[in-house]
Structures are given as C-alpha cells and as structure tokens.
Amino acid sequence: MNKDIGPIETKSFTFAESSHGFKLESGRTLGPITLAYETYGRLNEDKSNAILVMHAFSGNAHVAGPVIGDQDPAWWDFMVGPGKALDTAKYFIICINVIGGCKGSTGPSSINPKTGKPYGTDFPIITIEDMVRTQKVLIDHLGIKKLHGVVGGSMGGMLALQWVACYPDSVECVIPIAATLKHSPQQIAFNEVGRQAIMADSLWSNGNYYGGDSPEKGLAVARMVGHITYMSNDSMEEKFSRRLTDDHTGFKFSADFEVEGYLQYRGQTFVKRFDANTYLYITKAMDYFDLSDGQWIPAGGLPGVRFLVIAFKSDWLYPSVQSQEMVRQLQMRQIDATYCEIDAGYGHDSFLIESEAEKQSHLIKHFLAKRK
User: Fold this and answer.
1) Is residue 86 located within the same domain as residue 230?
2) What is the Cα–Cα distance from 317 to 320, expressed in whole angstroms?
C-alpha cells in the first residue's frame, strides 16, 4: 500500500442529462452519463501539469492509495506518488473509469432511466473513441485545456493513442505501454472465447441477470482464459512448473496441478468484482479499435507532441512487433517517438508487476520531465 498518498475518495461527474443525450460512434445516444474518477496531487495555477492515467481492461479509477469502503486495491500504486514516476508532488494525476465499466461509471449494470431497470444488453455498443470523447468532457469540466501527458497500459495504451487521434492539440506527451494500433485475429479470438464462455452460461439470460444469480461460471472461465494470455511461459514455469497440489491423491478432474488451482482462484475472485456484461462490452470495444491505417495522424504531423512507446520482450499477447509498427508510423511522419523494449519476464502483465517497475518508472519519469 502506498503510504505516501492518503485516502482518496472516488468522485463522480454526470453530464448529457438532456433529452438529446451524448451521441456515440454507433449513432446511438446515451444519457445521462456518469464518470467515476480520482485525482492525486494538485493542479497548478495555469493547469499545465495534468496527467491522465488510463486503466487496462478490468481496471478502475483507483490507481493509487489505500482502500476506502468497497474500493478495489490500487492497481498502479508503485507508479503514483511523491517522487515516483507519476510524481504527485509535481503533477496532477487523473484516472477515470471508462463508460461501459462497472466501477462507478455508466455501463450495462447501470439503471436505464427509460425503464428503471439495469440496461443489460440494451446498453449501446461503445468504442474506445466513445470512452475518450466522454473523458474529454470531464477534462473540460476540470478546466484543463492541455494535458501534459496521457499514459496507460494495454487498453489504457489504446486510450492514450485515441486521445491524440481525437484531440492532437490537447496532449503533450503520449505513453502507450504494451499496446497496439489494432487487435490481431488472434487477440480478437481470445476475446471471443471469453465472450462465448459468458454467453454460454445459462444464468447469463441474454444479459438480463441483474437482481438474480449472475453468470459466475462463464465469467470465471473467461477470466481464466484471459489470465493465461497475460502471463508468459517462463513466469508460469517459475511460479508453477508441473507441481502438484497438496491434496493430489490420484488421477481425477479436479485441480491436480498448482497452475489449475491458481487459474480457478483467479476466476473465482474476479467474479466478485467485475460485471459479466461489462466484460462483453469492453472486449468488443477493444476489438473494434483500429488506428492501423495511419489516418489518425494529421497531414502536418503532430508538432509539440512526444511519444514514449514501451513494450516487453516476454509479452506474447501484445508482442513488441505491434509497438514497433506504432513507432514506425510515427517516425515516418517525423514525429518525436522513442521506443523502449524492456526485458521483463512476466508477459503482458509486466507493466503491472511491482518487481518489474524500476526500468519502466525510470523511462516514464525522465520522459515526462523533459519538456519541449
């Protein structure tokens, strides 16, 4: 737990309360919209020190600090705080739970004002661009005209890229970590297996399970599949190898191997903090994301915008070649882009592992401190 940061309460911001609502990329409208967010540090007088941190797929707004009430544990505690990479003595850190989420922001588990019941699958399909455009409304509300930085790993990296695609004049530094310009067929396939596991659970009830039993078995399987992709073969060998559990007594279909028990545990704990429909909506948004044609970069480039692209050698879900393609596109247009590939052994989740933090922290801290 980060002892340098006191208890941080999650705040809420609601907009699009008129009958017109907020128009989404699909053409549908949504409203009212509530965004849950947290802030750390102080906004300086000219509001030039704000950094927006974007969470990964199953994350939330609680990026650092101790837990209050039913908050989940902070997911990037070792990166945010006085003297850390995201130095709260220098920067005003903002983290927002995306729309479609289930941690305080409007999503499929929220109440549909037209029916008085949870949206379920009546919730409109949302995209990464929709997430960013709603975040921009909150950033405008805070009176911030230009963010010093946008940073995030995995889906958070996609959000960072989409931010500069949508609002190139509103960002100085962009730090996508273990991210991509688009999902490959393999990445889409893994997400689809997770979605099908949820929808095959009889308790899913076409998404209308609120008020009753939720599809925990399907969601747990989806998380198990996903978690395998977040690790590396080496880290799994080191952590589990082929070790058997203590209660192994013979050939059976229960969790004989330690890795089986671990995956079951991860699935069972996940269902206590995440909504199955949110899993469907956010993975679909990630699959739709595609900036690979380069059209998101203006003809005149991105003057004044700097990129730090970070990848991990052991990440086979979002392999470094995808980050390298990102940098290639930027450098072809004479955009200031630095690429760093870190030799970390924990796979895709390396950016979330405290023991792997030193190199990542050093890179981010010095990149942010260097202003043009």
Assistant:
1) no
2) 9
Tell if the pTM clears 0.70, that is, is over it: yes
Q: Which residues face 23 on adjacent strands? A: 29
Separation CA 37–CA 94 (nearest Å): 7
* Cα-based angle 318, 362, 161 (whole degrees, multiple of 5): 40
Token code pair at residue 38: 């947290």
Nearest to 146 by CA among 18, 48, 249, 45: 48
Report residue 189: phi and psi, to 5°. Answer: -60, -45
| Three-class SS state of 257 | strand
What pLDDT, on the 0 to 100 scale, is given for residue 372?
56
Which of 270, 285, 300 represents a domain boundary (last residue)?
Answer: 285
Whole-Å CA distances, 135 to 71, 111, 295: 21, 20, 22
Q: Which domain holds residue 41?
A: 11-183+290-369
Neighbouring CB atoms inside 10 A of 119's CB total: 23
Return the structure tokens found at 306: 């700097």
Instruction: Please identify which of the residues 315, 323, 349, 350 carries the catalytic annotation.
Output: 315
Instruction: Flag whether 6 is in a domain.
Output: no
Is 183 among the residues known to form the active site?
Answer: no
- What are φ and ψ of residue 8, in 5° steps? -115, 120
| Mean pLDDT within 255-273 | 93
Helix/strand/coil for 3: coil
Residue 93's SS3 state is strand
Active-site residue, 241 included: no
Q: Specify whether 126 is located in the same domain as 219.
A: no
Residues 105, 109, 110, 154: which is the catalytic one?
154
Q: Is 256 a residue of the active site?
A: no
Catalytic residue among 62, 148, 183, 348: 348
* pLDDT band, very low/low/confident/very high, at 39 (cuts 50, 70, 90): very high
